[in-house]
Amino acid sequence: MALTHIVNPILYPSHTIPRRLSAISPLKTLKPQFSRHTTHHAHALSRRLFLPSVSSIWDAITGGGDSNPREAIAAIRNGMQLFRQGDVSGSVTEFDKAIVLDSRQKAYLWQRGLSLYYMDRFEEGAEQFRLDVAQNPNDTEESIWCFLCEARLHGVDVARKQFLEVGRDSRPVMREAYNLFKNGGDPEKLVSDFSSGQASEVFYSSLYAGLYYEAEGQPEKAKFHITASCGSPYGQRSDDYMASLAKVHCLCRNWSSGLL
Questions:
Q1: 45: number of CA atoms within 13 Å, CB side?
Q2: What confidence tier does 5 reach under pLDDT thresholds 50, 70, 90?
Q3: pLDDT digits (tens, 9 = 90+) for 166-220
Q4: Residue 152: CB partners within 8 Å, gap ≥ 6?
Q5: pLDDT in tens, 226-252
Q6: Taking Cα atoms as reference points, which of 49, 61, 168, 52 lies closest to residue 109?
Q7: Per-residue burial over 104-137, b = 16 or more CB atoms within 10 Å of its CB, e = otherwise
Q8: pLDDT at 256
Q9: How far apart are CA 106 and CA 231, in angstroms?
């Protein structure tokens, strides 16, 4: 590989993690805390199991410059843990610290975008998700979260006109969620279509139905579905980062069902 390309994540295709490919440093094995989904079932895995950079190799070759990639990765881990614990503000502080330590991390910090949404910093959140999709144009969930941020800024109609189109998701539930947000539709149908599906599909259909209702300004329906996602078996037992997000969502909205 040319040295000019080594700063970018190395992508390894996997039959168990289609489209959102693994970005793994060759110097270390994948750590669960960098994954949005950590489950023992391959079919429920995210399209991207994420380790933020291969900057350790780059720094070993170049001398590192002003970057501190190992400290940046530690800050990202801390930020993710704080978010899981419900400390959204603290998580943003850690993610921002990671960017200061290694500016290359910013384009991949989808975790930061999620935290910014819950701090009502929607413009910054949308920017973060657009940066992420620019690096990974097959990222369904970042496209949806960009829409959610921009809907809060400009309204649903404007957000839909500038919706980020991405590649086809391998997960049926996320394909349908993507089409729902992109084109509009009935979130109840999303839930109904996957009510007898895998545990992860039940969780994700409820989560994204609730998020759709929130974007539409229907908080009671949003509460019904997002608390249902928290109470589902997958929401209760999975180490998926998005299962933690559903609980954080409830905490931020003062819905007791989401208590961590």
A1: 20
A2: very low
A3: 999 999 999 999 999 999 999 999 999 999 999 999 999 999 999 999 999 999 9
A4: 120, 122, 215
A5: 999 999 999 999 999 999 999 999 999
A6: 52
A7: bbbbbbbbbbbbbbbeebbebbbbbbbbbbeebe
A8: 77
A9: 33
Q: Are strands 22-23 and 11-12 parallel, antiparallel or unpaired?
A: antiparallel
At position 247, the amino acid (one-letter code) is K
Mean pLDDT of 22-33: 32
Q: How many residues does the chain have?
A: 260
Residue pointed to by tokens 């992860």: 200
The tokens for 188 are: 């109840």
Return the residue matching tokens 């489950």.
39
- Tokens standing for 48? 């991207």
Q: What is the pLDDT of residue 42?
A: 39
Q: What is the DSSP string of the chain?
A: --GGGTTSPPEE--TTS-SS-EE--TTSPPPGGGBS---S-GGG--S-BB----HHHHHHHH--TT--HHHHHHHHHHHHHHHHTT-HHHHHHHHHHHHHH-GGGGGG-HHHHHHHHHTT-HHHHHHHHHHHHHH-TT-HHHHHHHHHHHHHHH-HHHHHHT-------SSHHHHHHHHHHHH---HHHHHHHTTTS-HHHHHHHHHHHHHHHHHTT-HHHHHHHHHHHHHSHHHHH---HHHHHHHHHHHHTT-GGG--
- 222 compared with 9, residue with greater pLDDT: 222
> Do 243 and 203 form a contact (C-beta atoms < 8 A)?
yes
Is-contact 75 90, C-beta < 8 A?
Answer: no
Looking at per-residue pLDDT, the higher value among 66 and 163 belongs to: 163
